[in-house]
């Protein structure tokens, strides 16, 4: 919750689906795409889009886009238009720029000499400005400021198009990957194939699932998604992650790993550690481990690093709950609920000014007084960004009778901007960069404040990867990077690649 | 959650506000009414309405109504129209009839010989049919099927209107209360006064709060609300409940208990026990006790009545969570989360057919596999109505690796219809009345199923009232009924009054 | 057009339809009602409503209401709900009060001891205030300020309702007609019958048509409408007018004149003369004559009364065109078009302030320069109300090269308010009551201005009634008033009845 | 009207405005653009768009787009966003393809190495397919199927962009004009300049107007519009037409003719003759003559070519009215109105199937019986395309008492498709190409049918150009083509250029 109100947000979610077997199929691809996007809705609520293809030669593409949540953007009657799709990709968008327009809604579809391609993108190209200039120098006009249009035009531009040849989209994708190192998880649909692509640093997540016929267990199709949490809601089983740098071709014949574009010698992978801390849904699986479990480990680690003399442990509902339960387990303090949430208030980060945001806290939470009045409370939060939303919560608890409120944050202080797809306030707005940070407890009105260390966070994340190693199902054709690494740039300022601006 | 999907629903929420001190006041009455209704949104999502009065002679009333959630029904520009109100009442409606029309939206405003009155009502008159006939026999045409219009016409009809007299609305309200015993919590606004009324059985809740100026603690105004949970979000403090049968006058001069209409000799009060079990927000206070605490006690009682040999205790999020934590505390079993919820799916009970409802479960919950795979789970639910929503959840947990799933329900089986404001499925639809109920565990796919006993529920509810007796703040002018009693008709078939149809 | 921009407007249009033969019928009553209302759309654009009945015992009524034009208010999917109606009434509303709300939308449906009635009303009761008081003194609360609700409550009130009797709605309607002399054209639907009622003065129009099967000429049903112009669009033939004071019963068995309530001795009828001058559609028939023809006669009469030395005659399109053609025929001057209209601007009287209205003229009309540059133009208008819209048109013509612009108005100056259903500006706003009227030509920038005389208008209207006498088809059972009379109150201040306020 | 219902439609309207004098100016450019588009609304109702520029370095562009009529597409609050524009272009779109999407809405804005350009286009490129291939061969992906996007990318592509040079947009526009001969009237906005471009054949219209300060007559700005009819509504005066092949630069310093790209030796101009016959508003001026006057001449010519022994002449309102008045003048027969129109029905060509279209006629027109019952009617129409809409009108007149109905069409039969921006039904759908055409009178139920000859139409159009020669105001710097020529391809099959597909 804290994050939401601090203006930190994920850029996007992508989702694709290909029906297996003979086409036309009875599998309702458009319906599956819609449900898949609903499951990824936490990654973006600004707009949603779907493009389906019937897969024939030439293919017929059908596009559906709209502003707002998936449930608002697509009307039932609209979905009927898409019903003959045999494959398709979808996208749910979080606006980083503030310009909220239908024309920025993905997937982008462009017509090229080699036919139409549709592209859905999660991430942010670190060298976008240079690439825009390059494309425009070639004489191309760009109609939006989005990286996604840039990517489609880059795919169309190089290598030069030859009318006679069979289109080699894989070569174009590989070329794109040499032009920009990160960050992108990409779905490219061409006629009857979806290419699922993850940048060499693996900065954004991308997982593959298999649609399973309930009775016999036959494969009905394949799905690919920013997060595996979407698989259950459509009757799919987790298959594996797309690896950093990998291009996976998904067709009615199955999935095929075509290539793994390497990182520069010596560079470790750089999967965004904040996917674990905040963005991802707790039931998603990354690197073989459930996000919920990682968050619980962060809570345990925090209890070790920052023990508290108190009566009860609680959570800012509900993203911090696994960490709070972990803290309670490790510390032996009883876990109680101190706040209940009004479901009808909505994500308050939509609201335009700080005054309304503070009112938002009052509208949003009710104090469960009996559980903490007269007690010393350890309140676990998953992060503190600007420091302006935890403050009214502490006030609320104190007014309702808490004798002490100790804030324990299950991640380290955020100090640096992200250039790889996360919307973080400017350096000046981050509480950790302000003079007030020296007395952060006084500033936010807490009895004490302690953060998880960077080392603690990394240990909580990476400890699990090794122990869960056996569970990973990786196709034999794919060479996985054995090295473990995560992007902690917003905490440490150490970016995985040099930034070109 | 289970309830939501079973079509059980509260009828309505009412909220009123009067600014204290000299008028016109700077207090934003319309804004407070809006926030108050947002806090009562769980009691009704079909439509919302607000009427404000400037309190002058004659008064100017301004009305704002709309379909859907408060956030949809009122637009910011509309609220500006209401800005000069010095007092006002609001209503949020849950449709029991399926006819969802703006004309049923409350508050009702009617013009009478004694000026305009506005009425907001929560409840359902047990003798509505007879009263309708009476009113119509008098020659009045009724334009809706709602009890609320009926109430307003009854208020206008008797005693006969005399043009010359000062209007005696209190006499009219008392007369109304002799005509219909229950169920109603009512706000009647006339010019510069709000009358807050609760039926003699106290079937529906109604609480009074005081708006407090932060620095000096001065009284800025008074609010009255179906539930006290709304007070915090507008900066008000809980003052007391309106007592069964009581008429409280609220004006800029303060609150005044005008009368307490008695029940028939020997009849106990009959506050709806399901407000504790399911409807109310957990941070609301009824009869001196916090709803959350009562639910937690139900869980403890359930653990005593129905112990289980299992590994973990969990909840169907999130209304059953306090009972689950109570069960865990009493039983000593560890509490874990087994399901995470997709916030973007919405209340699935809106959806029209059973197939979509089942899909709704899949869209709605993700399994937190690590927490229960290979384990025996006690899953606490707050109630089972039709039995068609818990079933897919059990299936989901088993497919994800739970070895046993024991369902423990923190309330007794529902067997009878409610005629006092709660929308319950027909007798035939209730799972407890079906032949399948004999093997309910087999029917829903659970390892075992146990319910809380009626006696256990009543003990959990009433045990707390005595222990919390001291906390109640009751104005000295109000005689409170010392007897304790609750309506358990939907569980036992014993209705508090004879039903007239 | 001039009128529209001056804020003069009709109150409403009413339309009813009963399918003949056995029920359920295949006749699409709801579709016919909709088309009928579209044909009456010029009488009101604020809201529209339809109520259908299946005519069974007890009847099922279905209601559809919405804001705006019929095409906006009713969606195709909504109309499907009404498809089983065997009879129904509809209403299209013009707001006179400025309070534009769905709850004022007609028809009103109320439940009474004798079942549900639905009422649609065109007109305005001259003694509404006294009647409201009377109803309220009886103890009835009124939820709107509309006369239509008042009428429904009056119908329910007297004579007193007896539960045992067969309802005698005709007695109730007759009683209503003794309580209020004018103005109303009324449709009252009860179960399987529509009563079509016109006030004793016949102030508002009401005509009956017969739905005809194309091939054999059989009667498929009956319709009743404010204007006969609606008959053609639904395949109905003009039958006759409802006479002043007449109550006509329309059922599947046909039409039946039940009663003619007389006027006070010596009072002539008072059909609104402005229906001829401005409001009605030119193809409607009143008193046996086509409105277009009356307007053309007004133009001829105007040419006799106010001849002009000029080169061409033209019109302010398009309501004044018949008068302009009449003027051209009588005067021998050539008729040309001087203005073309932008169809996409809409009725500009919706616009809120005078500045936008003047801009509206510029947006609305284009000058057809070739037709009048260097010429002396006689410009016919049908009326001048405030004088603020003809002025920019004259300016436009002069700037485009007209050497002289002579305004000839095909009706007399409006000087008095209407209390019988027409929305006219206040006395002070009427140009004819302002000092500027002495030099009206100078004020509006015309070379000269002349109006039709009251006598001339009456002669143009009544001359035709005698000559067309033979055409009227009046049922033998109906005694028609042989005396001719029209309401000219807005021109002369002579109201047909004493005004009670 | 007939045309509308036949699915013939104009492609688009373009409008531009530059404020003169020092910037920022007080001239409300966005408001003027909106009003200008409203005046061009008859050229397209699908969507509307505006882009304004503040003209600074670098410029800030603001875009506003929406579906539907201008009044629907732009909300007042949206227009405020554009208020600081010093220049801007707008577009109103008619969909030829049936794909009605916001992304096809113009103007297109693209970012290039030389800054952003905005393009609005009326017309259709005859060699669009070849040009698309050329652009895509260069590696550009096209995101829409519209010519307008193609034009913007062509402008960006050649000549090659050099980062260092001052952008030479005029060279790019000239290059574009060598690549595609017709048809296009184009507005290209770059920073502080609008280039107004007309193709060498002058197929689509484009006129320039001067915004005049009322009192002193100073120049406040310049506007450019598809039709001059828009000038009056914004206080502008007609200046001149952009000549075929001409590029006019419009800036705050005034207008400047930069170049006239010639046609191939021997080719005459080819202004679309149907702009005169049907599309344009009657008060627009093309080639020095008012459209209304040309239509009147067509009526006179028709009376000479096809005289009729009849009693009255009338029109299918209202596009055929000038021709009907011309026919009446030439023939000496009296002109009367036979049909009145229901303003509230809307353009029925939106309706999807033929049955509803026929109902549309009934809903749309009322018969003015008195004017023609028992008479022989000459009914003038401006064109007959499919023949399915005139037929019910004839039936209506006959049923209402016309003894004969002679159809006289003020243009020749349409036999060929248009590839230059007009949406005409397929060859097979055109009534003139069907076997029924041999007995067209019998087919549509008329007493007789006669068309204007191609020679007669051309004479009516071109006769006026010579006679009106003196009136043209052409800047001395512009060399006008002295040769007269019009595109009559849809009538004769002779296209002005070879069609490349």
Task: Give a short overview.
By secondary structure, the first copy, chain A, is of the alpha+beta class. Chain A is 28% helix and 24% strand.
Structure description:
The structure is a homotetramer of 501-residue chains. With 501 residues, chain A is of the alpha+beta class. Chain A has two domains: 11-267, 4-Layer Sandwich (Glutamine Phosphoribosylpyrophosphate, subunit 1, domain 1), CATH 3.60.20; 289-456, 3-Layer(aba) Sandwich (Rossmann fold). In chain A, 28% of the residues lie in helices and 24% in strands. Chain A contains 16 helices and 23 strands. Chain A has helices spanning 2-6, 29-39, 70-73, 76-81, 128-137, 147-157, 169-179, 229-232, 273-279, 291-305, 321-331, 354-364, 390-399, 440-444, 454-467, 489-492; strands at residues 12-19, 47-53, 61-67, 87-93, 108-112, 115-123, 184-190, 193-198, 207-212, 219-225, 236-241, 246-251, 254-260, 271-272, 285-286, 289-290, 312-315, 339-341, 365-367, 376-381, 404-409, 448-451, 486-487. A seven-stranded antiparallel sheet of chain A has the order 3-2-4-1-10-9-11. The radius of gyration of chain A is 23 Å and the shape is globular. The model of chain A is unreliable at 1-6, 346-358 and 467-481 (pLDDT under 50). Chains B and C meet through strand 5, helix 5 and helix 6 of B and strand 5, helix 5 and helix 6 of C. Chains A, B, C, D: InterPro entries: GATase_2_dom (IPR017932), Ntn_hydrolases_N (IPR029055), PRTase-like (IPR029057), PRTase_dom (IPR000836), PurF (IPR005854), PurF_N (IPR035584).
